[in-house]
Amino acid sequence: MKLSLLCVGRLNLPFANEGCAEFSGRLKRYLPLVIHEIKEHKTGRKQDLPRIVATEGQALEQKIPPGAFVIALDQGGKKLSSEALADLMKDHMLRSIPEWTLLIGGPYGLSDSLRKRADLVLSLSPMTLTHQMARLLLLEQLYRCCTIIRNEPYHH
Predict the structure, then answer these.
(1) Most exposed of 8, 29, 36, 39 (fewest Cβ within 10 Å)?
(2) All domains of the chain, ordered by start, with CATH?
(3) 6-64 per-position pLDDT tens digit
(4) Which residues, including other chains, have CB under 8 Å from residue 51's CB and lie 6 or more apart?
């Protein structure tokens, strides 16, 4: 199975960049991983937010490959334990699901159409996270899933 992260915005915090590089490298030992970043649109005006979210959503949607299992990250999504996410990953591997495409929105979140398009809407936390922190936490959890599946000692 292949993993694709489709992210709004770039990593510009040094600690997030280092952490994502670390867990991306670890994760690539288990599964192919591709990270696509699309441009983050910024605004100072509240009335621009729906247009920005829609524009970013369209850009993300164009990069979703056919046949992928789509997971959208959203604060209001389903809450899974690390073990439950690993079980889902293992089940999809056994069923030969070719790819997981994981969507991380920008500062204003994901569009409604992307949440509806997703096969799973997943919450990393009920707290609001920056998209940079969400990427770091997601990569760590995907790596953790792989170590759980292989019964390696990383997960305690």
Answers:
(1) 29
(2) 2-149 (3.40.1280.10)
(3) 999 999 999 999 999 999 999 999 999 999 999 998 776 766 888 899 999 999 999 99
(4) none
Two tokens, residue 64 = 């979703």
SS (H, E, C) 98-132: CEEEEEECECCECCHHHHHHCCEEEECCCCCCCHH
The token pair that represents 138 in the structure block: 């997601």
Per the prediction, the chain carries an average pLDDT of: 94
Q: Dig out the tokens for 76 from the structure.
A: 């209001």
For residue 110, give every residue at least 6 positions away whose Cβ sits within 8 Å of its Cβ, in sequence order, or none. 53, 57, 60, 72, 73, 74, 103
Backbone angles phi, psi at 23, to 5 degrees: -75, -30
